[in-house]
């Protein structure tokens, strides 16, 4: 599942994920409210959610709290065009597996900051954690 309120960024992320053979985009959402609605009403749940941090209506941090309560087995990777350390730390502190700067797909792995990874590498890290 990919969640982003910016349609252009959403499409860029979809295109990136489609290039990773191990992954399929199950669905998309434009805000946290759509995520909550999807999770509550669907029987097939995502393994990973790429979750924008800054969204209207229900932001990524609030959505992450719900996901953790609803089903802690769902892994979340935070995404944002903002790259301030406190924002990243907040998302990681909520249990995100990693962080992706969606403007250039710089990522941060949960165990340490490494700004040279790409989305495919982070996805493969997730697979190793299963």
Polypeptide structure, described:
The protein is an alpha/beta fold and 130 residues long. It has a 6-stranded mixed sheet, sandwiched between helices. Strand 1, helix 1 and strand 2 form a beta-alpha-beta unit. The longest helix has 12 residues. It is globular. About 9% of the residues have low confidence.
Q: In angstroms, what is the radius of gyration?
A: 13 Å
Largest sheet: 6 strands, mixed
Number of helices: 5
- The total count of strands amounts to 6
- The separation of the N and C termini measures 17 Å
Provide the low-confidence segments as ranges: 106-117
User: What string, H for helix and E for strand, traces the elements in order?
Assistant: EHEHEHEHEEH
What is the overall shape? Answer: globular
Secondary structure: helix percent: 40-55%
**SS-based structural class?**
alpha/beta
Q: Which whole number gives the mean pLDDT? A: 81
Strand coverage percent: 15-25%
Q: Please state how the strands of the largest beta sheet are arranged side by side.
A: 2-1-3-4-5-6
Keywords:
6-stranded mixed β-sheet; 130 residues; 5 helices; alpha/beta
Question: How does the SSE layout of this entry go?
Answer:
Elements: E1 2-3, H1 7-18, E2 28-29, H2 32-41, E3 48-52, H3 60-70, E4 75-80, H4 85-93, E5 98-101, E6 106-109, H5 119-129
Parallel strand pairs: 1-2, 1-3, 3-4, 4-5
Antiparallel strand pairs: 5-6
Helix pairs in contact: 2-3
Gist?
This protein is 41% helix and 18% strand.
């Amino acid at each position: 599942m990919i969640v982003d309120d910016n349609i252009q960024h959403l499409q860029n992320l979809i295109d990136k994920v489609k290039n990773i053979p191990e992954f399929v985009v199950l669905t998309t959402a434009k805000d946290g409210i759509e995520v909550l609605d999807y999770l509550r009403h669907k029987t097939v749940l995502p393994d990973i959610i790429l979750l924008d941090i800054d969204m209207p209506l229900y932001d990524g941090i609030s959505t992450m709290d719900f996901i953790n309560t609803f089903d802690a087995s769902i892994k979340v990777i935070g995404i944002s065009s903002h790259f301030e350390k406190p924002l990243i730390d907040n998302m990681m502190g909520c249990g995100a597996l990693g962080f992706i700067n969606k403007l250039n797909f710089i990522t941060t792995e949960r165990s340490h900051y490494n700004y040279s990874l790409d989305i495919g590498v982070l996805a493969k890290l997730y697979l190793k954690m299963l």
